[in-house]
Design a protein that fits this description.
Helix content is about 80%, strand content about 0%. The protein contains four helices and no strands. The chain is elongated and about 60 Å long. The N and C termini lie far apart (about 30 Å).
Length: about 110
């Protein structure tokens, strides 16, 4: 569904803004959030223009990394940690739903 891709695009843009707004004092966290925001926004935009399950799966993987990054990188900033976990869950869920929705149905005749 295009709506899922556009929501993920907006969430990617939000991560870019959040990188500057929530984690400006922690450079590695800021770079990670902005980088993931760009990746998610670009992949979601591409997915909305050219529906392909592989693009949606890549968005879901980026969402998964957004979800686990606060634990892996051990964020000290509570606002950034909470934001990344919430955004990661939503992007992951919408990416998977979009990929499953766009799977081509393979029919075989017996």
């Amino acid at each position: 569904m295009k709506a899922f891709s556009w929501i993920n695009f907006i969430l990617g843009l939000w991560l870019i803004v959040a990188g500057f707004a929530l984690s400006a004092t922690a450079r590695p966290v800021m770079i990670e959030e902005i980088g993931l925001g760009v990746i998610i926004a670009c992949l979601a935009f591409a997915s909305s223009m050219r529906p392909a399950p592989v693009l949606s799966w890549l968005v879901a993987i980026a969402g998964l990394w957004t979800l686990v990054a606060p634990m892996v990188m051990n964020y000290g900033l509570r606002a950034s940690r909470g934001n990344d976990i919430i955004v990661g869950i939503i992007v992951l869920a919408l990416g998977v739903a979009n990929a499953v929705y766009r799977q081509d149905v393979v029919r075989t005749h017996a």
